[in-house]
Design a protein that fits this description.
five-stranded parallel beta sheet, binds adenosine-5'-diphosphate, binds magnesium ion
């Protein structure tokens, strides 16, 4: 058998997949640059470590279940007046996840609640944290069906094991008292082990309304608020301010013809 082929098989049997895939390149580079044996080994090990790191990161991002990617670098702070530069930097540093602090982002539609929540979650995945994202509606569905549905069970296990749990759109739809109780149980379980980010269009006083139960609303808010920062994201809708349309203005059409 050809030596390169044999080496590749041996690399694979040792799970050195980067070395297997880039073997010719690694050897060629070493020959061209006449590097030392030590540097050659260094290149192999570094390549392997980076490959594993990138693979684990991609896995965390996939398992988090984001509906789409959003990045902190694209978050326009000058548009979002509710957050200072310093607060944004502190949030980006993610130490609040280690400290198991919760974050409640509240405000009307289009102000960037979901963008900020996903971007923080995405960054957390890059930094090695286990993250789970779900809308309140999907979460409630999983909580209700985890006993009978394998996919719900997998999702709930992921949520329970995550360092950061993002629950988007809390309060948009009313939930039943059984669902409210299941949600309370989850928040209690996650307390002291998982940081929670909640986005909501409801003020605290309105939680009673969508949960349909004043005692339950108080109990949930009590647990969530113990170690928590709340950011009231008011202001204009980014969507409305930056509305994009595909129909051309009448004026433009005429200009183009003339
Ligand atoms: P919300 O969840 O508050 O309804 P989203 O986060 O979904 O709003 O934001 C609506 C759209 O506007 C998204 O495409 C989002 O990326 C964008 N957006 C909102 N706020 C900002 C911001 N401060 N900087 C950049 N994009 C923003
Ligand atoms: Mg949203």
């Amino acid at each position: 058998m050809d030596r390169i082929k044999e080496l590749k098989e041996q690399a694979a049997s040792l799970s050195l997949y980067n070395t297997r895939d880039k073997l010719e390149e690694l050897i060629h580079q070493a020959e061209q640059e006449e590097i030392s044996y030590t540097s050659f080994l260094e290149n192999i090990f570094h390549g392997e470590i980076k490959y594993r790191h990138d693979k684990a990161q991609a896995k965390r991002i996939k398992e988090a279940g984001f509906p789409y990617p959003k990045y902190l670098k694209d978050f326009d702070l000058s548009f979002c007046k509710s957050l200072t530069n310093r607060q944004f930097k502190q949030l980006s540093e993610l130490t609040w996840i280690d400290g198991i602090y919760n974050l409640i982002l509240s405000g009307p539609p289009g102000v960037g609640k979901t963008h900020l929540a996903i971007a923080l979650g995405y960054h957390a995945c890059e930094e090695g944290y286990k993250v789970s994202y779900s809308t309140m509606q999907a979460l409630v569905q999983c909580l209700r069906t985890e006993e009978i549905d394998r996919r719900s069970r997998v999702k709930m296990n992921r949520i329970r094991k995550s360092n950061l749990c993002i629950i988007d759109e809390v309060g948009y739809l009313p939930i039943s008292s059984t669902e409210g109780n299941l949600f309370f149980q989850l928040v209690s379980e996650l307390q002291e082990q998982t940081a929670i980010v909640i986005t909501t269009n409801k003020g605290f006083e309105e939680w009673t309304e969508f949960l349909n139960d004043a005692a339950l609303a108080t109990a949930i808010l009590d647990r969530l608020s113990y170690r928590c920062d709340r950011i009231q994201m008011s202001g204009k809708s980014y969507r409305l301010e930056n509305r994009k349309s595909f129909l051309r203005e009448k004026g433009t059409e005429q200009n183009e013809i003339s």
